[in-house]
Amino acid sequence: MKPSSFRGKVFDAFVAALLGAGYVALLLATVKNLGYARDEGFYFRAAGEYKKWFDILFTDPARALDQSSVDAYWRENHEHPAFVKSLFALSFKFLNVQWHVFKEAGTAFRFPGMVLSSLGVSVTYLWGRREIGRLAGFVAALFLAMQPAMFYHSHLACFDVAVMSMWLVTTYAYSRSLEGGIGWAVVTGILYGLELDTKHNAWLLPPALILHFLATRGLRLLRRDLRSGRTRIPLALLTMATIGPVVFYLCWPWIWFDTGHRLSAYVAFHTNHEYYNIEFLGTTYFRPPMPHLYAWVMTAATVPTITLSCFLLGLVKSGIDFPYWRAKRALPVADHDVLEASWSTRTLWLLCLLTSYAPWLSSDTPIFGGTKHWITAYPFMCLFAGIGFQWTRERLTTLVPTVLRRANVPDAALAASVLAGPVFMTLHAHPWGLAAYVPLVGGETGGASLGLNRSFWGYTTGAVQDFLNAHAPPHAEVYIHDTAYDSWIRMVRDGRIRSDLSGTLTLSASNVSLFHDEQHMVRVEYQIWVDYGTVRPATVGVYDGVPIVWVYMRPPVPAPIH
Amino acid sequence: MAPKTLAWLLVPALGLGELFSALYLSSRPPKLEDWSRAAPVLAAMRTHHELVVIAPDWADPNARYAFGDALMPLADVARPDESRYARAIEVSILGADAPELRGWRVVDERHSGKFRFRLVENPAPAKVLYDFVDHIADADVFDVQGGHQGHCSWNKAARREAGGLHGDPAYPSERWECGGGAWHFVGATVVEDEKWKGRRCLWSEPGAGYVGIRYHDVLLGKVVRGYATLPWWIERELKGAPVDMKVLIGGDVALHYVHRDGDGWKAFSAPTGARAGTRADVEFQVSSVRPREREFCFQADTR
Fold first, then answer.
1. To the nearest whole angstrom, how far is the Cα of B263 from the nearest Cα of chain A?
2. Which of the listed residues A24, A212, A215, A243 has the most CB atoms within 10 Å of its CB?
């Protein structure tokens, strides 16, 4: 399936670029009413500090590299590494402050996240194109892009989709490096360093790659390697172990000084992460044991069923194509080699997928992040879905008259039939991405009836910003509930919220109050009832009839401001 | 054509099926404007202060937005249970039923747009003679510590406070203030139970001794009945000491109730015996051997 001609390669690069650019454009077009999520507020603040450091770096590098400068500016949010936040900072510096490409600083902060998510979509296409075929790669890429939760997270100045893309591109480079040569191996080492510097999910990649090496080398060859004392460890594994840490170190100024202590604090933060509340099937979990079914049920409930079905078909097909079945062993050598190469890639995909889900086999792993914590699995899931699509395509083509086949009608119809649902669900879910559930569980109302979480991070303030601007009394104090103060401030500074409105976390001092739906948060709503003397929200932000965020106003309610 | 080949058509069929299912499911529930349009229908049906119950319960905020405090007052929304209501109106969407009204007799049923209104009758309604939460302003409240009885004072305009997610439930502006900190009061608030439902109850967090709440000349029925809880946020930690509550009728201990973390919204009942139908003083004494974070809250009535 590899594009052999130069023309083919250029075309595929063009399609990949088009997919990426199209996705960025779609994300930018839909960013305005997506409120700033809780964690984004923290990263905005951090990136603002890092920008100050970059300002010094560009004018007085010696001073910037001094420990006092590094400590002063990189202390902020040092529990997460710096690569993506540095991109947020640089985007803010150049695309908002200096060049005014983006009017909103928030969009400038978000832009690198959008680009990285689009990179994931593009690379899914390229890898799918190489391994399965052009149309299947295209469908796999759109399967990835068109998932409500993925679409939501792709907008954000956060790390989840960024680490998903970094995992994918690192693995892609690793896979290419197995074909020989040193170039891709070096690229793999550099990319892995950047992935390490994106989010700690990166720690899980080496086990997947080592397992892949063991599985594809085979027992016989491994035994021979051990006997001879000469192993053929992939070069990229060595570059990941050498170049990777160097890149990680260089790109995170915070660990330039007091390195051991700061690194161990970073590791300790994530290995001892606190538990937050999250609702699952009507129960709020706040400490272990966490439900074992969480990751699987949430995947089934949020990823379009057609995507999952094609994924399962792809797994079956990959099993059938296992090169060591008796029938396959009888194939001509050339055909068998093709099968072996393809099996190696599919094994890599499967191991990356399983490794991404592996932490949730333990009931001690926190579940508060919903689906975003195993989102690194999704590109691989979609690549398998591409195989499932291709298998279906091959079988169905025989049903169609040649004249239609020549015009690619069956291909277009099949692609449209499997993509229409995901596209509709994804676009329709905006800006309520975290509340989106697939028809398999009854859609949004089904999710609500099942007791599945409808939102977290307080991002839905963006969905009621117009109401606040129109109805909040002049100079009102707004209780911002789950929206982080930094996120609220950014909404005000970006002109999304009236500048005379003040955010507060003191309910009793407020005249207007937001309430972001989460099961355990209802205790805040009960406080509003007593404090405001009313149970009537002034407005409700609903998604397909399901309330997600609502606003209370302290009686007497004033007339709207026009 | 081989059936095995035709079976592959299930893939595009599934894709299109999911699309049309998503379209259908998103068009099914009423919009917020539809809820507002349903308000006059409900208002016309609610002639005797019937309880309004929404099914499914997640639609409650939409209903409260559209129907307002008049049709869904706080005392109803954060009710102790349904036993005191003779009739209720179930407002249902998507064909849902309210589990709390199961077994109630349907008297009237109407449909309007995407809503179903059912007027239902309680097969065995309780007649509440006296609600201790509603009459908190009429009580005497005192705080006994080390044998010394300190009087709490009624404040109709106390400083409101609300602790947010990690803090205390809201302190109402009307409350008995017992000194020693804003938390030390008796007054009506709303706390969450073990199912995260709101329950209107009397906050009566004890200090080192006990908090006493004495109601005078209360019309008694067969029982003094109620529920008690701590905010589930605290109870679920299972770390606190038990809370004791004595119920005294006419000076005699009629009930010694013990509330342990994890009990949730737990019922209690004290028979009045021969005093049924008479009037007597009723007193609640709340204490704990380790009163830290014992945000005890109870509801009670005579019936």
1. 16
2. A212
- List the Cα angle A372/A280/A80 in 5-degree steps: 30
Q: Measured between alpha carbons, how far is A30 from A430 in angstroms, rounded to an integer?
A: 8
Cβ proximity of A38 and A458 under 8 Å:
yes
pLDDT digits (tens, 9 = 90+) for A163-218: 999 999 999 999 999 998 899 999 999 999 999 999 999 999 999 999 999 999 87
Q: Chain A: nearest CA to B122, how far in angstroms? A: 25
Residue with tokens 């259908």: B24
Q: Which of A305, A527, A544 sits opposite B162 (nearest CB)?
A: A527
How far apart are the C-alpha atoms of A12 and A133, rounded to whole Å? 11
Interface residue A136 vs chain B (CB under 8 A): no
Q: How far apart are CA A151 and CA A426, in angstroms?
A: 7
Backbone CA torsion sign across A192, A197, A203, A208: negative
Q: What is the 3-state secondary structure (H, E, C) of A14-70?
A: HHHHHHHHHHHHHHHHCCCCCCCCHHHHHHHHHHHHHHHHHHHHHHCHHHHHCHHHH
On the 0-12 / 13-18 / 19+ scale of CB atoms within 10 A, B55 is buried
Q: How far apart are CA A149 and CA A164, in angstroms?
A: 13
Q: What CA–CA distances, in Å, run from A303 to A72, A427, A483, A509, B238?
A: 42, 14, 26, 42, 37
pTM exceeds 0.90 for this model: yes
- Pick from A248, A261, A154: nearest CA to A199: A248
- The pLDDT tens digits for A532-560 are 999 999 999 999 999 999 999 999 887 77
The alpha carbon torsion through A173, A176, A178, A184 (nearest 10 deg) reads -60
Taking a C-beta distance cutoff of 8 angstroms, is the pair B98, A449 a contact?
no
A-chain CB neighbours of B58 within 8 Å are: 448-449, 546-547
ipTM score of complex: 0.97
Q: Beta partners for B229?
A: B297
Whether the CB-CB separation of A350 and A358 falls below 8 Å is answered with no
| Cross-chain CB nearest to B198 (options A418, A520, A526) | A526
Residue B128 makes CB contacts below 8 A (sequence gap 6+) with B84, B301, B302, B303
What's the angle, vertex CA A520, arms to CA A359 and CA B157, rounded to 5? 155
Q: For chain B, give the longest Cα–Cα distance.
A: 95
